[in-house]
Amino acid sequence: MTEQPDTRQYITFLANGQEFASPIMAIREIRGWVDTTPLPNVPNYVRGVINLRGTVLPVIDLKARLGLGQTEVTPKNVIIVIDTDHRQTGLLVDAVSDIISVSSDDIQPPPEMMQNDASSHYVEGIAVRDGRMVTLLGIAELTQTLN
Fold first, then answer.
1. Is residue 88 over pLDDT 50?
2. What are the CA-CA distances from residue 21 to residues 49, 98, 145 (Å)?
3. What's the CATH code of the domain at 42?
4. Could you give the number of structural domains in the chain?
5. Which residue has the higher pLDDT, 1 or 92?
6. By CB atoms within 10 Å of each CB, which of 11, 49, 87, 126 scores lowest?
7. Average pLDDT of the chain, as a whole number
């Protein structure tokens, strides 16, 4: 069985008990949680930076970025390393779940009530997969930390 041309693969992950997804091609690696070095004068969703093989990698708390409060970090949390526009950013999430294929026909637009929400431009759409709702994130917009 071959995939349709309008089908994309996403990696799914959990934050705040919700399932989110990012295009798999934007993911460079998944790392276990390591403590970050805090930075002064950054938005509350920037957890700090880590050393990724000699590169300073900013880490964004997905839960905080979406306005859902700060993540209480445990050793079970992971950092997803995202590469957008030749810039790498870490995304703190609770866990990585699965790899899914989503057809563009299966993607619903964000609900109208979200249209005026400041975080709505991070959401590309909602896909229903196996009876569960997966929020598809616009990673380039989400990882822009200096807005």
1. yes
2. 23, 9, 19
3. 2.40.50.180
4. 1
5. 92
6. 87
7. 87
The whole-angstrom separation of Cα 56 and Cα 40 is 15
- What's the DSSP call for residue 62? H
Q: Which two tokens stand for residue 26?
A: 């934007």
> Cα–Cα distance between 36 and 59 in angstroms, integer?
8
**What three-state secondary structure class fits 36?**
coil
User: Using alpha carbons only, what angle is made at residue 71 by residues 70 and 77, rounded to the nearest 5 degrees?
Assistant: 160
Neighbours of 53 (CB within 10 A): 5
Residue ranges making up the domain that contains 92: 7-142
Percent of the chain with pLDDT over 70: 89
Whether residue 2 is contained in a domain is answered as no
Q: Is the dihedral of CA 43, 127, 87, 77 positive or negative?
A: positive
Instruction: Map tokens 């994309």 to a residue.
Output: 8
